[in-house]
Specification:
seven-stranded mixed beta sheet; alpha/beta; Rossmann fold
Length: about 190
């Protein structure tokens, strides 16, 4: 099923200092499934991944956040990394981009610290999520429920805890969720 996401347009929104495995591995899975993936960032022309606390590789940004229109995407993937997630949630344009995706009912996959921006976008109230454990109180204080599981699938949202969850749990759940978006996009 190498083309189950053929024609699906996915934005990966990130800043510098994202956890590299949380962007690279899901992006590879999306591309292998046939999705068109666009790396979007307020930081141009490239962003740097991290391996935990150590700077790692740089990646070319495909589209500036200033030029990114949420209506041009069918789904959103949010990698974690504490610094990346904190920077994004402090960027009003990033919060507005995520909020527009949420309000349009488009699917979102978020891992590790990435749910922070979902909190700021007002998207966690009444939802069950997982994340890196340090976000538990933030999620609960925003009206969401937090659980310690490798992956949580709820309506238009898939969340996961950490890089170890990616291959077995997060990527398959993300592909399943995004497949529904592809079917909806094909029906338009």
């Amino acid at each position: 099923m190498a083309n189950e996401l053929q024609g699906l347009r996915v934005a990966i929104l990130t800043e510098d200092a994202f956890e590299q495995a949380e962007m690279v591995e899901p992006r590879r899975a999306l591309e292998n499934a046939g999705a068109t993936v666009t790396l979007v960032s307020p930081h141009m022309p490239q962003v740097r991944g991290w391996h935990h606390h150590t700077p790692a590789d740089t990646f070319k940004v495909d589209l500036s956040l200033d030029q990114a229109d949420p209506s041009n995407f069918d789904a959103l993937m949010l990698p974690g990394g504490a610094i990346n997630a904190d920077r994004l949630r402090m960027e009003p344009r990033a919060v507005a981009f995520v909020k527009a995706i949420c309000e349009a009912g488009k699917p979102i996959a978020a891992i590790c610290h990435a749910p922070w921006i979902l909190i700021d976008a007002g998207f966690t109230k009444g939802k069950t999520l997982t994340s890196w454990p340090s976000l538990r109180r933030d999620i609960e204080n925003s009206g969401g429920s937090w659980v310690d599981r490798p992956v949580v699938e709820e309506r238009q949202l898939v969340t996961s805890r950490k890089p170890d969850d990616i291959p077995k749990d997060f990527n398959p759940a993300m592909i399943r969720l995004f497949q529904h978006a592809r079917q909806a996009a094909g029906a338009r």
